Amino acid sequence: MTEGEVLHWIKELPLGAAVRESRWMFAMGETLHFIGLCLMVGGLLIVDLRLLGFIRSVPMRTALAFLPFVIVGFLINLATGIEFFVTDPFMYWPNPAFKLKLTLIALAGLNALVFAVLDHRHKLVLADGKTTGAYVRLTAGLSLSLWLCVLLLGRLLPAFEGSTSFF
Amino acid sequence: MEFLAWLELTDFSVWLRESDWGHPIILCFHAVGMGMVVGISLMYSARILGYAKDFPLSAFDWLFGLAWFGFAMNAVSGVLLFAGEPRRLMDTPAFWIKMILIVLAGLALWALGKALHEDGRDVIAHARPDGATIAEAVVSQNARVAAIFSAVFWLGAIVSGRLIGYTISPPPL
User: Fold this and answer.
1) Which residues from B are below 8 Å from A54, CB to CB?
2) 8 A C-beta contact, residue B27 and residue A155
3) Is the residue at B75 inside a domain?
4) B162 alpha-carbon distance from chain centroid
5) How many Å separate Cα A15 from the centre of its chain?
6) What is the DSSP code (8-state) at residue B76?
7) In Å, what is the CA distance from B89 to each residue of B32, B93, B127?
8) Which residues pair with B137 in a beta bridge?
9) Alpha carbon A38 to chain centroid, angstroms
10) What is the ipTM of this complex?
11) Under 8 Å CB-to-CB from B72, ≥6 apart: which residues?
């Protein structure tokens, strides 16, 4: 299948047709996407700022307890993001801001995955009140920066509509 | 209305409507500020309602410094966005509902702070799994109710904010 055929197949999915025909489904998806964004930002600020060494009065384990908000927010935004994409794949796919956004989401996921696999979460339980190591701070800084760029690119998607590259 | 008509004809207002980048860039700031204000408020509500009970409430004083920064960013970007379409926005009910909900969310947070201050005298000792003991403020029913209202008002502000774009009248020719 060529790229165009894949996009065409996606566009013909029942979900896309339903959203295109409905008056409010797209708007509801957008609203939920913003709510998911807030859950992610709120949770990430607590987790990443604690990892960076701020709010040290918070036990590390307690700060990490806010991760489920980040995960729930991400799942809401993944689901609503898919809703948007199937509605008009030919509009999103060529958009350079969309492709960069997906790439940065993958990088942010990889960053979190490496952090989880290296099991810093387990080691950090003992580090209450102490400063975290350089690697942990790097991970947290990367996480905040990547997600900030993801948010900004999402907001800028319409401005890049119709262009196929940034330059 | 004369003021709004004048505002609409200022160079800035015209630029905001006609430039490719003015509007999207201000919206970027508005979205980041929203994440900071609503995100931190929602985490605070969750904490007040019993989530992560050993998260010291005093740490939220620092986090609300960030939330205020986000709020200031949104007040400024919001006024700038308003300057782009003042008359059309004044005629859009969703815009007014959003403004009212933001005020109500602020009032709910204020009431929450007040309730916590009154609760402050009742502190219980709380043993952590690692053996340490920390003092934990008792959260009253009033504070919990205020936390729920804060979350509901913020989410309502997001819903009505999104509805502005769908219900605003088309631009005049």
Assistant:
1) 62
2) yes
3) yes
4) 14
5) 22
6) H
7) 22, 8, 53
8) B123
9) 11
10) 0.93
11) B33
Interface residues of A toward B, Cβ cutoff 8 Å, are 27, 30-31, 34-35, 37-46, 49, 54-55, 57-59, 62-63, 65-66, 69, 128, 148, 151-152, 154-156, 158-159
Beta carbons within 8 Å of A47's beta carbon, 6+ residues apart: A63, A64, A66, A67, A70, A140
* B117-159 pLDDT, tens digit each: 887 755 666 666 666 666 666 789 999 999 999 999 999 999 9
User: Residue type for B44, please?
Assistant: Y
CA dihedral B156→A67→A65→A118, nearest 10 degrees, is: -170
What's the domain range around B44? 2-167
Angle between helices A67-87 and A25-52 (to 10 degrees): 150
> Is 0.90 topped by the overall pTM?
yes
If one counts the domains in chain B, the total is 1
Name, in order, each residue with C-beta under 8 angstroms of B142's C-beta and a sequence gap of 6 or more: B111, B115, B118
Sign of CA dihedral B82, B85, B87, B90: negative
Please write the tens of the pLDDT for every residue from B16-75.
999 999 999 999 999 999 999 999 999 999 999 999 999 999 999 999 999 999 999 999
Q: Tokens representing B39? A: 């995100």
Query: How many CB pairs lie under 8 A apart between chains A and B?
Result: 95
Nearest to A42 among B43, B62, B161 (CB): B43
For A32, A62, B59, B70, the CA distances from B56, given in Å and listed in that order, are: 30, 9, 6, 22
- φ, ψ of residue B126 to 5 degrees: the values are -135, 120
**Can you give the C-alpha Rg of chain B in angstroms?**
20
